[in-house]
Design goal:
alpha+beta, 4 strands, 20% helix
Length: 93
Amino acid sequence: MCQTNADINIWKSPPHGFLKVNIDEASKGNLGLAAFGGVIRDEHDKIKEIFHCHLGKETNNIAELMALEQFLEILVDSNSHNVIIEADSELII
């Protein structure tokens, strides 16, 4: 079951030994100017990495998927295994 914005009240730290990534996209129209961004934090709320990209004209679904792809590339490079992904995209979830 997916959460709605009404279900999410406050950001919570991930459990011990986990990272949490929050990703989102924005687009002016669908096909329109689009971008994505994300932040990765550890269990102490310390920001480990911030990433973003301007995509030019793209759909919101492609922007969400590209945000996830960027995060997965970072994850592989960091050799981390315990990860929680938060996003508002049913496509990603």
